[in-house]
Amino acid sequence: MLIRIAKPSDVKPSEITPKSLYLDRRRFLKTAAVAGATVVFGSIAAPAPAAVRGPKLPGVVPSKWSEQSLGEKLTDFDAITKYNNFYEFGTDKDDPSRNAGAFKTRPWSIAVEGAVEKPGTYDLEDFIKSHTLEERVYRLRCVEAWSMVVPWVGIPLASVIKRFGPTGDAKYVAFETLLDPKQMPGQRRPVLKWPYKEGLRIDEAMNPLAILAVGLYGEAMPNQNGAPIRLVTPWKYGFKSIKSIVRMRFQADEPPTSWNVAAPREYGFYSNVNPTVDHPRWSQAKERRIGEFLKRPTLMFNGYADEVAHLYAGMDMRKNY
Amino acid sequence: MTRETAIRWVAKPIIFTSALLPLVWLAWVVTTSDLGPKGPLGANPIEYVNRHLGDWAIRFLLMALAVTPLRGITGWATLTRFRRMLGLFAFFYVCLHMSSYVGFDQFFDWRAIWKDIVKRNYITVGMLTFLMLLPLAVTSTKGMVKRLGGQRWTKLHKLVYPAGIAACFHFYMMRKGIQLEPIVYAAICAALLGYRVVAHLKKKAAQAAAAENRGKAGAPAS
Fold it and tell me: Domain limits at A243?
């Protein structure tokens, strides 16, 4: 019997490249070449790192706004998490997924102020815990004429508002994003007046479609999508759905909103999705669904007219864009 | 190797090939890579292609505009020999950028395109840039220089200055908010055109001084 004694110079079995990886080297070389060339010629630097999946959220229940009831295909997780407008982390679509990785979303508190019976500063967990997390599959229509279908996880904004007991003076609710240029590099540049501000009329906020989302695809909200908590109002252009919320204020007057302050001619307070009222610089009649080649027609109120059209009865949508 | 062969058979082919690389790279990626959100072009490959071509159009335009200032600063006259090629590559990428807008972005929806041109300021300005560059590309041959005559040709080709300004406006106007990238391009363009203004004023001042000197010396004014 031959007993083989290992020499120190021998290759250990653990050091042998597995065959699958070995065969993969072509693909590796190609990926590396594409990445290298992209750095040199690409308008956008290197491809973004692989999407990080968040922890699964427990106790999420389905709602009547499901993938089946919408009848449209969900947008790929990678697209939802790598193609973002979140200017606090940079203005390119892949900046948020690159720059928001280290963003600290715990501890997190939300200040509730103004015309409410129970004002105060609430820890995020306390803010959410008395509500059931629901899955809401909504279309998302960006003002830039592209769209997605996102399976959000969130809580109805109406039940949150009811809990704080708005008084008769609460005609509007104003929202504010965190202001922290140390963590949010985009806030070091004057792209907009920071912090980001948004607002809704109280009856809009009470509409069953409006939610505060804390996750997507059944998982905790990725930082680049507005963690830990963001607004989602699917009948309005995406920028109304303010991210990383730290303040909710109930008040009698219409609150200033960031894009309206930056360019009042282009972005109104209401900003409802409306294919018949164009953005001054581009048409809103059609949109490109991310993942599709041909544009599709944009629907009035992004397809949610049955649920929200009554909110704007008698209003001139050309003036109140 | 003479200086002439070096320019003609080494430098020019190198610049020509390099200038094609952004297109070759794009064609390679588009034909061989995953065009989904995990691929190198991201979730919106059509937007990527359009912007890539637009980026290179404005880059070549600014490179062509940089030749005169660089020659002035370095005194290296040979640089002028590459100016036509840079300008034509700018026009080449402008044409590709427009084709991708018409073919990919709008998918030949001519009604939507016409509405865009008359209504959207940044598309209008983009089209104006193309219209200003078109006669420059057409008259770029030696034969056309001769036919037009040097002076008229030079006058016509001053159109590249408003074209450069328009291209920067086009880029700035299509972005939302105040963004750094288009401002950087606009600043480079302003510096390149500003150099010419300063050079022109200096020349004028020198001429005036020379005329004054001649006047003092009692020479008849010309």
Answer: 49-263
